[in-house]
Every structure is written in structure tokens, then in C-alpha cells.
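As agreed, record passed on underneath.
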Amino acid sequence: MQKKLIALAVAGLVSAPVFAQSNIQVYGVADAYMQFGQDRGDDTMGLGSGGLAGSRLGFRGEEDLGSGLKAVFVLEQGFNIDTGKSTAMSGTDSAANGGNETFTRQAYVGLKGNFGQVALGRQYAPGYFTGEYDAVLNASVSPMSLLSNFTRLTITPNSAARWNNSVTYNGTFQSVSVAGIYSAGNREVDVKGGPDYTDDDKYGVSLKYDNGPLKIGGIYQAVKFKDVADETQNEWLIGASYNFGMATLAGSYQQGRDVLGMKDLDVDLWQVGVIVPVGAGNIHVAYAQADVDKVQGVLSSDVKPKAFTVAYTHALSKRTTGYVGYTKVDYDDLLWSEARALGQGVNGRTGADLDKKVDDTDLFYVGINHRF
């Protein structure tokens, strides 16, 4: 009898974890494309990763706690499918020190219920989610994505909108959704005689309306740069889209003030586009322009970089999409030295090359995106 009880106890210990993990899901995106053309004047041809959406592997799950309350978690890592390497952390959180870069897209745990969801960890800021106002759906080749990332805005579908050490709230109530985030940044303690722990804090909110063919929303975000400058980068965006049936028109306008904490480094960015259904696919066309104000020591004059993308996406199945497209970026009269001052890579250019203008980008690409 005692042996039977011991056997039952061991069996219970073995089976319990299996039952507890039954709500865990493995998901991801595998996206690769072939590109050829010129990238800021440099000839390029080869494979790229994440044309429509960044390649990733993730784990998510939830546990019912009763009374309508659930515990939730997400662990998500990006990777470059062309090399198999993980995607390194970049953007405004690149100064983080210590540990390996694992689950750099998202890593959080929280609670959700009828009130919405509250979570803690590395999470998306509200400014990451602007795809409903973008005719190229926030793909890496989207004009809005390209220019917002290039001008160092944090309302962008890129790493600058993934924030460490953050608490978030997300709630949807019929046609209205609200979101908020507060990030302690990468400094959480005072350094005697040094920067204050609040000097790199970030925060943001969004309010969106989605009802039938109409989508409209507004986003505000702020990032403190008091550890390197005296200013706070303030940003806002308003966007909208409307599905007319035969086509969807989408667009947005956004501003960034004192970007990177540099006083008077201001950016205005607008974009507009259209999606036209064609059988099992869609034609996507979008145009964007940024206006970057001159600042002594950074830009010698105002520059207005422009970007244009035309693409065709075709649904091969519910989870697999093929795509082909062309993207052009005109950097106006921006010099390589000015691009470096904005924190952009200069492709090994030194000396006299830094005083030359940044050449246009002209890229053709064809790829496949699979979600699992």
C-alpha cells in the first residue's frame, strides 16, 4: 500500500508541470528576402531578414487565477534569418550594461482581467504600434519606419520603442483602446556625485478609436536625456486610416522636439499611402517626408529626407505571404558627418568622405514571410 502511495505521489509530481504548461504557446515569424540596388550609395546584393516583419521566436502563456483574473507572460527574441544570429539590442536602450542580450524584443509578466492588462518588464511603448496608419504596415521598408528610425524618433516601429524596466497598462473598451507606459530606463540607483536615477526615465500614452472602416489615434512619448544633456525629447503623433472597400487610405503626422536631448533639434514627419486589394494580394504605395531643423554642431542647414515605397504582397496561405517591392530614400543635402552626429552609421567613411553628401538609397527586393 505504501509503495502504491509513493508511486501515485511521484506520478503527480511528474504530471503537474505538464498540466501547468498546457497554456504555453510557441510562436514566431520567419521572414527572408533577396535585395539588390544601392544602400546610401553603396552597391548591395544579398539576403536580408525581416522585410515585412522582424524574424522572431517567442513563448507566451497564461494561467487562470479565478474571478476573471489571469497571470500572463511573454518572452520573445528576434533573430536574423540570413545569418541565424540573434538580434542585438539597439536604439535608446543600447547603453544597458551587463548580462547577455536575450529576449530583446519583449520580456514581461503581468496580470489581466476585465480592467485590461498590467505588466512588468521589457515592453513595447505605445509608439511602436502605428501600423494601422501606415499603408506598408510598419514593415522595415515602410517610409514611416525608415525615416522615423533615421531621425532618431521613439514613435517608430523599431527598437527605439522597446523600453527596459517598464510598467505598462493596456485596455480595450468596445471601440476605444488606451495604453500607457513608464520606464525607469537603465539607471535605477543614484550615483554619488553622478547622474540621478531618474535622468533616463521614459513615459508615454496613447488613445485609439477603431470602429468598422475608420481608425484614428494619438500617441505621446517623452524620453529624458538629462544624463547627457539638459533636455527631454518630447514627441506626439496623430494618425488615421479609412477603408473605402476598393482601397484603404492611411496617413500620419508626428513631431519630435529636442531629439536626443539636443536643444532645438526638432523633427516633423508626415506620411501618406494607399492599399489597393488585387485578388489574393494587395498593392501598397506610401510616401513620407521629414523636416529636420538645423542645429549648430549637428546640422548646418535644414534637411528634408524623403522616402517612397511601392510593394505587392500576396497571400500564399493564411500564414505565408510573398512580397516584392521597391524603396527609394533621398537624404536631401545631408552630409555624412551630419548623419554621424545623428547617431547613424557612416559605413567606414572618414576624413574628406564625411564632408560628402549621403547618396540616395534605391533597393529592389523579393521575399517570403511565414508566421507560426
Observations:
- The mean pLDDT is 89.
